[in-house]
Amino acid sequence: MMMSVRLCVALAVLAVANGVPPKASDVGWVVLNSGVNLPVVGLGTWQVTDDRELEQALDAALEAGYRHIDTATIYRNEHLIGKVLKRWLSEGKVKREELFITTKLPVYGMRPADVPYFLNESLTKLQLDYVDMYLIHMPFAVKREAYNNGRIDANGTDLTTDHLAIWKAMVAEKEAGRAKALGVSNFNETQIERIIKNSPVPPANLQVELHLYHQQKPLIRFCRKNNIAVTAYSPIGSPGSKWLTLLSGKELPDLLNQPDVKAIAQKHNKTPAQVLLRHTVQWGVAVIPKSSNPKRIRENIDIFDFSLDGKDVATLDALDKGLDGQLFDMKHIGGSESHPEYPWTALLDKPVA
Ligand SMILES: NC(=O)c1ccc[n+]([C@@H]2O[C@H](COP(=O)([O-])OP(=O)(O)OC[C@H]3O[C@@H](n4cnc5c(N)ncnc54)[C@H](OP(=O)(O)O)[C@@H]3O)[C@@H](O)[C@H]2O)c1
Ligand SMILES: *[C@@H]1O[C@H](CO)[C@@H](O)[C@H](O)[C@H]1NC(C)=O
Ligand SMILES: *[C@@H]1O[C@H](CO)[C@@H](O)[C@H](O)[C@H]1NC(C)=O
Ligand SMILES: *[C@@H]1O[C@H](CO)[C@@H](O)[C@H](O)[C@H]1NC(C)=O
């Protein structure tokens, strides 16, 4: 099983490295180290809490062939997703085993006893017996009482976070069948390595910010070496998160109008979004673009009928801005930067943008 895991990703990646584009079948899914298939394109659902908007998006996505849906306790939309899934399942339009549902342990639930509590809450809302992937959302933590109706107190930091104890509680959920696979999000290499060294169950997945300007190549290599699949969040640069500029002073990048991206899109008769997603997928990385627009939802999964050639890939690879391209430093989450598990220590030596 462990062998076949890497194979699917490795094939795609090797093919690209040699300038030979992979076939769609090579990148339709990534096999996790737990033996489960992760569909390579999923629907992101962050910042969608309107009932009708989300229902329309999910219907469009499921009709377009999406089977992978990404949510989290903190997105406050699991109950809406559950309602739509229930309808699709009870009408027999999709089978449970075809779906891949990911949700996440909230930053205010970072104690071992919180793991069964919040997973149970998620399962109840999703109307499911198990999730396909349960992720620890953030490596740092805030106190339970710091969270109130979607808001987190600036003074809420919980300094007692014990990753190994939390991971042990995660493993118990996998053993009980309530989560088919386990992973982490926003963790750095050191934090992941510590879990690998101290637990019989390694993370199957790392979900991190990853897009044209923040390509995360070293982290991808680290994960490949350790048999961990990578999922890219904000794969088209989160153009809807306009509030970020107000919050951090950071300019939102306009990846969809980047001239090289536009030229490559024109060359392949595809859209800029499709080029951005395809670029990431050709690295063997899964993508979870969010859209509430049925046309764009269809567009975002229609990336398996073309391939970027070696020259396209080299052009796009060269646009990486490394840490300067990062959008979400999570400093807005209750004192995260003063937490001992804040993952981006390199940012702490820099003045706040
Ligand atoms: N683990 C974490 O900490 C974390 C953090 C951030 C995000 N995530 C996950 O990753 C998902 C995606 O990230 P994201 O929502 O930040 O950003 P994203 O997927 O990069 O961008 C979403 C934005 O792009 C627009 N868009 C989507 N497809 C488009 C297309 N084909 N052409 C033009 N515009 C398009 C959407 O608008 P319309 O809706 O109008 O199409 C929306 O405003 C989230 O929804 C969430 O599930 C996880
Ligand atoms: C799970 O949640 C349900 C409904 O909220 C509750 O009745 C049940 O006792 C919970 N189980 C656990 C193990 O927490
Ligand atoms: C943060 O400070 C506010 C105002 O002083 C207080 O009401 C709240 O309980 C504090 N939160 C935590 C988690 O200590
Ligand atoms: C990851 O974060 C921890 C906690 O802040 C820090 O000690 C470690 O140096 C970081 N590792 C990397 C590779 O950035």
Automatic annotation (TrEMBL):
Active site (UniProt): 75
Superkingdom, natural source: Eukaryota
Name of this chain's protein: Aldo-keto reductase family 4 member C10-like
Domain NADP-dependent oxidoreductase: from-to ranges: 41-320
Gene symbol of the encoding locus: LOC117643309
Entries under SUPFAM superfamilies matching the protein: NAD(P)-linked oxidoreductase
Pfam families in the record: Aldo_ket_red
Family affiliation: Belongs to the aldo/keto reductase family.
PANTHER family found in the cross-reference section: ALDO/KETO REDUCTASE
Site residues (Lowers pKa of active site Tyr), renumbered to this chain: 104
